[in-house]
Amino acid sequence: MGIMHKIGMAELDVCKAPDSITTLGLGSCIGCVIYDPTTKICGMVHVMLPDSTKIRNNETIAKFADTGVKELHRLVIKAGANKAKLVSKIAGGAQMFPFKDGNDMLRVGERNSEGVLKALKELGIPVLAQETGGSVGRTIEFYPEDGRLLIKSVGKTPYAV
Amino acid sequence: MSQDNMNEMEFDVLREIGNIGSGHAATALAKMLNQKVDIKVPKAVVCDFNALCQMVGGEEKLVIGILLTLDGDVDGMMMFIMDLPSAYSLLRKMMFVDLKDEDELNEMHESALHEIGNIITGAYLSSLSDLTKLKINASIPYMSRDMAGAVLSVPAIEFGKLGDKAVMIETEFDDSGEDTLNGYFLLIPTMESYGKIMSSLGIC
Within a 13 Å sphere around the CA of B165, how many CA atoms are in the beta-carbon half? Predict the structure, then answer.
């Protein structure tokens, strides 16, 4: 058994099997995993906002989908992953409060999903699993040993994708 | 202006607003429960997003969050967070029901919690409005019962548009019984509204 690396909001980290990586209590944020099944090297980023170009204070690159996913991609390759083999899994992007009006501020979960998918597409990384939307918080754990993404929500049995 | 370069003076102002707001909230709570409610001096804390979750008891701790959106002179949102034991103890006192901490909430309980959130945040907002002479309209309350990290992601994202810090006010209500109620307020004005609040108080 390896150790489990933990990342918080607007953070990212890279690890290799037998280690694993987790982020706790994802709400409207997105946890995005990029990994190479051949070398079992992976990384996870916990992004909060879809687009860094819309925000003036944008130095924290792991906070945004566009810059965060790109930086994660760079670090995973730097750690030894094969660029051509990279795949990804994403989770989060929930709407935590049942707003009825169309206030854009409140659709941030959905826009975060779109932002992350766009960044992954630009890098040419296929998305193998997407567990986004809904109205529940998620804790996620990724095991590069077998590529399993474990998802835990309140009142539900944990499941892997 | 961002919260990263917030000065000591502005910090004191937010703490004072928290102080007065919590006082009003305690009075409103006392009326509702028909019993004495004391408050301890609220703590206003400026911290990064991950410390925010730690203050409430960790990312995976179950909490109840009540959120209202604001418009008028101040745009943004306001959130009140309490842990499950506090929420359940309030419900027991308010509704005279035998509710155990592991019981599920029914529709009536949820509606009562909405009302509690409405009263507490309303008292807070009206003191802010009195102090600044700004007009603040609040939406109806929305509730979420989930992991603290997930509930707090909503205000954290709003703060995230301004910088890498959040401002939270921790309030401990003590109703002189065996239970204490721990609550946390988050006021998240948009950047423009934040400047308005400060300048209406004669700062900056």
Answer: 13
Token pair recorded at residue B7: 């000065």
pLDDT of residue B36: 75
For chain A, what percent of residues have pLDDT higher than 90? 86
Q: Which of A133, A136, A131, A124 is nearest to A148 (CA)?
A: A131
Residues in chain B within 8 Å Cβ distance of A26: 149-150, 153
Measured between alpha carbons, how far is B3 from A157 in angstroms, rounded to an integer? 40
A135 contact residues in B (CB cutoff 8 A) = 144
Mean pLDDT of all residues in B85-99 = 82
Q: How big is the CA angle at B92 (ends B91 and B95), to the nearest 5 degrees?
A: 75
A4-160 is a CATH 1.10.287.3240 domain: no
Count of domains for chain B:
1
Contact B157 A48 (CB under 8 A): yes
Q: What is the CATH number of the domain that holds B101?
A: 3.40.1550.10
Alpha carbons B27 and B43: distance in angstroms, whole number? 18
| B4, B149, B161: residue with CB nearest A24 | B149
Place of tokens 């990994």: A35
